[in-house]
Amino acid sequence: MNEFPQLTFKSLQHAVSPEEWQARVDCACAYRLVHYYEMHDMVYNHISTRVPGKDEHFLLNPFGMLYDEICASSLIKVDIDGQVIWRPEFPAGLNYQFNPAGYVVHSAIHRARPEVGCIIHTHSLAGMAVSSLDVGLLPLTQTAMRFSRVASHDYEGVVVDLGEQERLVRDLGDCEVMILRNHGLLAVGATVAQAFNNIYRIERACRAQLMAMACNTQLVLPSQQVIDHTNHLYKPEVRRPYGLMEWPAMRRLMDRVDASYQN
């Protein structure tokens, strides 16, 4: 293409239910936050949010848009079987669809775990690096100790084979986060707030681990008793649901940076 038209979208705010609109705004905010915290990978990766009241419908990004271009009205609505329920109009020649790998990953988890409202997958540098280490994520820091279990899924190639869905779901189990070996990170949550909190925390834990390992000195691990005690103190039933306090602050941050995600 010799022309690169700017993307503009007619607001869906009054064309969908208030619940769906809220889900769209929160999901778009999560995309912007992943970009802001440098966990994005150009136009690749995906965040999905289940549409409230429509358990088999979820929202995905158009494959071809940068994360800092995503807004509430740009998200494609897809069903569990991969049928497009709705997508925005794009300038001639773009015709963006959803990422096939995104559908394979997200539909599998949404189908298997109805309590999951949001899924975030990243190819951050730290996530890819830790996914290539035989030790995986170590409980080196308080941030890492927040996760009692981190699932792991072996690399099978680009995730476009529907046959991989069963193994992906099996390996995730009931965990909140998973390391996709030689690939990246994945986090889930009942809400966008919880899923973003999970991906943010595991990303920070990965970065800290890599910095510590680069120092070429002996790593200091707390005792298993301290690790277990720390994890217990972070459990939602002991403290509070993940993201509950943080999400309003995250929304305010994005409002200051660029409120266009709310369109």
Describe the protein's architecture and organization.
The chain has eight helices and eight strands. α1 packs parallel to α6, α2 packs across α5 and α3 packs across α6. A hairpin with a 3-residue loop joins β7 and β8. The chain is α+β, with helices and mostly antiparallel strands and 263 residues long.
- What distance lies between the first and last C-alpha atoms, to the nearest angstrom? 27 Å
Class by SSE composition: alpha+beta
Helix content: 25-40%
Spatial strand sequence of the major β-sheet? 4-3-2-1-5-8-7-6
What portion of residues belong to β-strands?
5-15%
Number of beta strands: 8
Looking at this protein, list some descriptive labels.
263 residues; alpha+beta; eight-stranded mixed beta sheet; 37% helix; globular
